[in-house]
Amino acid sequence: MNFIVVRKPTSRPTFGSPDREAIAVTITGIIIILSCTRTGRPEMTDPMEHSLIVSPELEVISLSLGTIVSWTHSKQKLNNVTEFIFWSLSQNTEVEEVCFMVFSFFYMVILLGNFLIMLTVCHRNLFKMPMYFFLNFLSFADICYSSVTAPKMITDLLAENKTISYEGCMLQLFRVHFFGDTKIFILAVMAYDHYVAICKPLHYLSIMDQETCDKLLLGTWLDSFIHSIIQVALVFQFHFWGPREIDHYFCDAHPVLKLTCTDTYLVSVLVTANSRTIPLGSFIILLISYTVILVSPWKQSVKGILKALSTCGTHIAVAIIFFSPCTFMYMRPDTTFSEDKMVAVFYTIIMPMLNPLIYTLRNAEVKNARKKLWSRKVFWEANSK
């Protein structure tokens, strides 16, 4: 903002009476103060552009009105904050080095374990079986979900500047919710698949045919996309003017909303409600499916119940392990705790690592397919020598 005081000859006509001059100076001052208070300091332009003559006999205040207008409009559209800074998991260098090695190992297990399940399903042509059809895409979602946060977190553990751009933060927010919701929906669909297989075995092939499986899978992607777009839209509408340090290791809705300079109570309520809808609805489906399975009339015997638990035990274990931290994070009021980062580590890294281990150890079909695949690999290597 530029002001110029210039002496003028007394022969020129005056602006008006002293009262009018005082009023004009007061109004100009108010405009300047409000502009500085609301937007910060603008860039300088031509100081003589749009000169405002307040008192020709005493002085001329030259104010670039075009600068104020363009400055205000640009700040309404753009954010002062172009990047955010993560606090990561710890500020201790030694702890960060240990975490780097541990989580690097975990991430490699996630990739290898889930790729092994996908390779097994594809190699053994198990896509025709609904259970393995959805298990394959659950492993794919696990890889994508952990890859959204784990590589950035691991590299930040040894980086001095733990930053992410504004656009990258919004993209990460979208992908976290998209792949996370996809996992939740697939777990719910797999629960329904178990219900049909156990309670309606004679109609299983007609109910869970390939067309139905494709539609259910498409529905999971579509619902996840809608939920994620809503989350990003609720956060994207705000402007970030000052604080840019996120007390987390990835961009999530509530930690980012804490950085805005406006009241976010209503939007936080909407974000929380939108976040609750997915896990709550899926949890209800899981609860109904397995309750019906366990209390079915022809499953009243202890032997029948044990058989049902043996069939669904793996999926129940995965659902409980995944939904427990999700319930802690997204089913509570709009608050943040110091434990949030540790809980987030569990469902973004630990859980995708445990999934292939649980399904591989508990599922006979996957174990047999893995053994055959491994023995064939050994046979090829022996023949090649």
UniProtKB/TrEMBL annotation:
It is found in: Membrane. InterPro entries: GPCR_Rhodpsn, GPCR_Rhodpsn_7TM, Olfact_rcpt, Olfactory_Receptors. The chain crosses the membrane at residues 100-121, 174-195, 216-240, 278-296, 308-330, 342-361. It is a multi-pass membrane protein. Residues 113-359 form the G-protein coupled receptors family 1 profile domain. Coiled coil: none annotated. Keywords: G-protein coupled receptor, Membrane, Olfaction, Receptor, Sensory transduction, Transducer, Transmembrane, Transmembrane helix. GO terms for cellular component: plasma membrane. It holds the Pfam family 7tm_4. This is Olfactory receptor 4S2-like. It comes from Heterocephalus glaber. The gene is LOC101720814.
